[in-house]
């Protein structure tokens, strides 16, 4: 296995230690919980997290204007409830805590358990679940993918504006009613903790509707050019997004060159125009990855002026290019 690692057992530990060396604005507590080194004195505290392998999510968004803590599990593995609880207790300042969770059974279960434990200690904790992946037809089972990062930014902005916990949760859930994503891949990720690829695929094939944990897509087809790929994905998205104006994220999966993301952006734009959609803001880059998977996802987010302002607002996260 060709990976720049010391030992697969220490993948998470070594990664977090290296990240801490380059970012004095965060601290590591409980071995796997990343928190802001200067605790926010007021405003709803935001906690997210999940398995590692999605960098810069989620630890890269622990910064002014975004998250207060990220709970890091092992690669593609949910963090345990005790770690989530430690994060909640570390960042709570009396104004309440909002948990931002992707819709995977393990994540939802463990964050819910931590929420209940924190509430027993009289900490006000609410939770939102992101389920933006339209590759899954059953709405209840839709996965949380790149749209989660938009929630981190929007909620971070609202917190800094002094929006109270329940109101903040409601505003985030309103945003989530319209956010839709879908992804594709040319290659699977090589998972360092197992030494195995997420799935097998031939050189001339591609997967449509992949997940971010190495899950294969819903459809496998012959590799197509950029325009045809954009056409496939945008057609699926616009069928579920009525808004005429949208924020668009073109998100790399970790192994896709920025040049190719920009190529896809061109053809995604053309397809959106052909469907009568106006793009009010672009986000292009690696936001929610799947290790070294070569592929990308598109997220459409209908919005009002406050959402657009929030996504353009300043943040000290070096990984959120607004």
Automatic annotation (TrEMBL):
* Matching Pfam families: Dak1
Q: Which residues form the DhaK domain?
A: 7-320
InterPro entries reported for this sequence: DhaK_1 (IPR012736), DhaK_dom (IPR004006), Dihydroxyacetone_Kinase (IPR050861)
The answer on whether this UniProt entry bears the keyword Metal-binding reads: no
PROSITE patterns for this protein: DHAK
Where does the sequence pass through the membrane? none
Respond yes or no to whether keyword Thylakoid is given for this record: no
What keywords would UniProt list here?
A: Kinase, Transferase
Any GO molecular function: phosphoenolpyruvate-glycerone phosphotransferase activity
Enzyme Commission (EC) number: 2.7.1.121
Could you tell me which NCBIfam families the record lists for this protein? Answer: dhaK1
Q: What is this protein called?
A: Dihydroxyacetone kinase subunit DhaK
